[in-house]
C-alpha cells in the first residue's frame, strides 16, 4: 500500500532560486538590446548575470511578513506618541529645526530613491538584480511614508512643517539633497546603484540614522527614533546590496575598474556635501547631544569607510579622491554651515539661533583646535550685535555651487580663514563651485550640470528678485516659519504648553 508523503516544502534558498533564476528566460521576438537599452551605454561589461548574488536572498512572502511586523510596532508607537502629547516630552523646541530639515530634504529623497530603484529594476537584465531593486524600491517608499506619518503630528502644533513638498523643490538648502537625487536618477542604472547603494546608503545613512536617531531618543522623540531604527534595519540590507553591486561589476571585467573608481570618487564627494546639513543638525540643533559630528565621522566614516576600502583594495579600488579634503573639513563644516543658516534665516523654513554659552563650551570641548580659534569669536560678535539691537542679518543672496548647490560658505582645505571658491568657463559662460571636488564633477559632465535648476538665479529670473513673492511660492510664512528661535511662536507655544503639562494651573 502506498503511503502519502507530505509534499516537501521549499527551503529559503530554493524559494529564492525559483523566484529569481528560474524566472529568467530568453526573449524570442525582441533582442535583449531592445529590451534593455540602457545597460550598455555606461561602458560596464557584464558576461554572466547569474553571478549576481543577493546576500539576503529575501523572497516576497518573507519580506511582507517581516515588514508587516515592523509596521505594526511603528504605528502603535506613533499613535501612543500623538495621544500622550509626546511633543511635550522633547527637551526643547529647538530640536524641531532638525526635524524640519529632515522632512524637507531627506524624506523626499527617500521617495526619489523609490522611483530610481523601480527604474533600475526595469533596466537591468538579471532577474536577481531586478528582484533586489524591486524590494529596495518598496523599502524606499515605505521609509518616505513612515517618516512623513511620524513627523506629521508636529504639524498640528508647530510652524514650518506644512509645506515640505514645495520647500524640497524650491528652497536653497533643500536643493542640495534634491540635486543629489536628480543627478542619480538621470544617470544610467549602474551609476545609480553606486550613487544610492554606496553614497547614500553607505556614506550618508549610517551617519544619519544611527547617531542622529540616538540623539532623537536622547531628546525625547520616540516617534522619530522608531522610524529611524525601523529604516536602519533596511539600510543595512541596502548597504550590502550596494557593495555587492560594486563587487559584481569589478569581478565581471577588468575594464570596469576605472569606471567604477570614477563613480566612487564622484559620489563620495556628492554624499559628503549633503552631509553638511547633517553635521549642523547634530552639532547645533540637538539640545542634548549623544556625540559630535567629528566623533560620528570617526566611527562611521573613518572606521567603517576605511574597512570598506580595505575590502575593495583587492579589486584595485582606492579610497575616493576627495577623502583627504573631507577629513580636513570635518572640524569646520558644521560651524560654517550653521553661521550661513543663521545669517540667511529669513529664507529658511525653520529657526536658527546663537548658541548659548553652555553649547559653545560643549563645541569648544569637542573641537579643541578649531571652535575657539575660528568660530566662537564670530558667535560672540553676532551676540553683541543682537544685544545692541542691530542683529546680524544678511539680506543678500547666497552664491550657490553649480554642482552640489550648497552656498559657498566653506573654506580652503588648508586655510580656514579663506573662502574656497572655484570657477570654470564652459561655452562662454562662467560657473562657480564650492570646492575642487564639485569643480571636477562638473568638468567631467558639463552638459549635465549646466542644466541644473538653482533657486537663487530662479528667484531673479522668475520673480525679479521679489523675496516676498518667492516666500509665497515656497510656502514660507514670514515671521512664523523663519528667523531667530528666540521670541518665535514655536518657543512661546512649547514653553506655555510644557508649563501647563507640568504644573497644577
From TrEMBL:
Pfam families listed in its UniProt record: Phenol_Hydrox (PF02332), YHS (PF04945)
UniProt keyword annotations, A-Z: Monooxygenase, Oxidoreductase
Domain YHS: 411-453
Signal sequence extent: none
Highest taxon in the source lineage: Bacteria
Stated name of the protein: YHS domain-containing protein
Organism from which the protein derives: Thauera sinica
